[in-house]
């Protein structure tokens, strides 16, 4: 057996604790797989006085220099989260010739370019499997197993909190506020749930997935984002009646000459689509390629041990490279400079729910507006219940450019017979 490969751990919260447990429970197999023992040399903590039973018998420090400056340490695992100082620590670690493993989607989505450039310059590994989909292998498949393909679509349920909330709303008929409260009580949603419910967490993951799938750098600010805060039990009920489920999707499409289309928003998804069956806190990523056809990666999108599974696998990969002397083998794969598809140019079908006056000719007036604006309707339903001389109308369109849909809605809003456009939600991957 070779000399041990030593690594430093930055952070020992949910994921860090999982990393330590996985190493303790699977040490023998990990050593065999690497061809050398893997040793955790030191853990960076913020407060040396805080009790941390998970770190019993492990050396700790509150001084980053003791890890970055330690020549015996060849891999740094960053599981502190946030941008600062995580970004600086990772760059400095690579500058010092160490490979870096991280679960940090914030840094990868916003500063991935800096990270890859430094890794390339220093001939070290920069690995980030846990940054999307927690324990689900998706970064390595995109960077290695699917590289024979031209990928045209990568689409995922990448936020467990919102998928849990939408599943509960669909299955229990609960409203948004009560499912949010429940998700907070269960520890899925933070006290400030904004990153999850407003779609920002999913947007970071969408940027990472699309960059890898389409080999072009997509930044967080390139992703158009809408969260789930406006979804009502009524929309979920209509979705069910019409053969759909409501999901918060991260959507990435290579739309050819129009550019790369990357967005996060709630969608109506046909019940038979593979992503429609993903319930609760689970995540899944669906890809379409010209050789593989369709494939889906499914599993736990968060949690201490599942996320540690991805982090430790990256550490094993980096350690194997050190043992074999093959550093920085899989480099940045953003070798294209594709243009971005503007939101106006994107194409989808749409679900629209309107409150209108309940009198003869209204349905015809609405259909005429859609027709005049170049929006073709697939189906229109007038609800059976009439609410004080008003009725709800639900329309599903055929594929149409977003800009045409916005024009149609603007005209509809100005009609005296239309009281309110209550919802407009994209329909993704509709059948015909
Ligand atoms: P966490 O439970 O909050 O743990 C973070 C740890 O880092 C804490 O122990 C914290 O110390 C420590 N820390 C923060 N800033 C530090 C600093 N400046 N110096 C030293 N230590 C510092 O977070 P987590 O859930 O493990 O998440 C870690 C990373 O994994 C994040 O990037 C997250 O997005 C990613 N991730 C998490 C999950 C998941 O299921 N939790 C899934 C996928 C990806 P204190 O103990 O002093 O607070
Ligand atoms: N907050 C995320 C989720 C987990 O709800 O899926 C960490 O990426």
Structure write-up:
The protein has 432 residues and is of the alpha/beta class. It has 3 domains: 5-135 and 304-324, Rossmann fold, CATH 3.40.50.720; 139-298, 2-Layer Sandwich (Dihydrodipicolinate Reductase, domain 2), CATH 3.30.360.10; 343-427, ACT domain (Alpha-Beta Plaits). 36% of the residues lie in helices and 27% in strands. The protein is built from 14 helices and 17 strands. Strands 7, 8, 9, 10, 11, 12, 13, 14, 15, 16 and 17 form an 11-stranded mixed β-sheet that branches. It has a 6-stranded parallel β-sheet with strand order 3-2-1-4-5-6, with helices on both faces. β11 and β12 (293-300) form a beta hairpin. α5 (105-122) packs parallel to α10 (200-214). The longest helix has 21 residues, at 304-324. It is elongated, with a radius of gyration of 24 Å. The mean pLDDT is 96. Bound molecules: NADP nicotinamide-adenine-dinucleotide phosphate and L-homoserine. Residues 159-161, 188, 196, 201, 301-302 line the site of L-homoserine (HSE).
């Amino acid at each position: 057996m070779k000399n041990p490969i030593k690594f430093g751990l930055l952070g020992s919260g949910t994921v860090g604790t999982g990393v330590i447990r996985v190493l303790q429970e699977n040490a023998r197999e990990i050593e065999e797989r690497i061809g050398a023992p893997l040793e955790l040399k030191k853990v960076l903590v913020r407060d040396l006085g805080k009790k941390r039973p998970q770190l019993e018998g492990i050396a700790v420090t509150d001084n980053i220099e003791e890890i970055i400056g330690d020549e015996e340490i060849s891999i740094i695992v960053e599981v502190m989260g946030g941008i600062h100082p995580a970004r600086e620590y990772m760059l400095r670690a690579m500058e010092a010739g160490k490979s870096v493993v991280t679960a940090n989607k914030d840094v990868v989505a916003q500063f991935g370019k800096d990270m890859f450039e430094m890794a390339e310059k220093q001939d070290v590994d920069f690995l980030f499997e846990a940054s999307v989909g927690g324990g689900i292998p998706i970064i390595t498949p995109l960077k290695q197993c699917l590289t024979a393909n031209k990928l045209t679509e990568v689409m995922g349920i990448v936020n467990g909190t919102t998928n849990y909330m939408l599943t509960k709303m669909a299955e229990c008929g609960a409203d948004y506020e009560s499912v949010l409260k429940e998700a907070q009580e269960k520890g899925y949603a933070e006290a400030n749930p904004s990153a999850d419910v407003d779609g920002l967490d999913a947007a970071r993951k969408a940027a990472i997935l699309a960059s890898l799938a389409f080999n072009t750098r997509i930044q967080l600010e390139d992703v158009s984002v809408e969260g789930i805060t406006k979804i009502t039990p009524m929309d979920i009920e209509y979705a069910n009646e019409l053969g759909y489920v409501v999901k918060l999707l991260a959507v990435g499409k290579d739309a050819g000459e129009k550019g790369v289309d990357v967005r996060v928003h709630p969608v109506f998804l046909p019940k038979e689509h593979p992503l429609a069956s993903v319930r609760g806190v689970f995540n899944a990523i669906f890809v379409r390629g010209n050789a593989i056809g369709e494939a889906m990666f499914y599993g736990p999108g968060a949690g201490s041990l599942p996320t540690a599974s991805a982090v430790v696998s990256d550490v094993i990969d980096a350690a194997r490279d050190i043992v074999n002397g093959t550093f920085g083998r899989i480099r940045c794969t953003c070798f294209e400079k594709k243009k971005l598809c503007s939101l106006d140019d994107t194409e989808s079908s749409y679900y629209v729910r309107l409150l209108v006056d309940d009198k003869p000719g209204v349905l015809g007036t609405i259909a005429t507006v859609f027709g005049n604006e170049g929006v073709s309707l697939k189906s229109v339903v007038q609800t059976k219940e009439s609410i004080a001389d008003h009725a709800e109308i639900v329309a599903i369109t055929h594929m149409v450019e977003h800009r045409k849909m916005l024009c149609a809605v603007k005209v509809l809003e100005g009609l005296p017979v239309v009281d309110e456009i209550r919802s407009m939600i994209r329909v993704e991957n509709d059948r015909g």
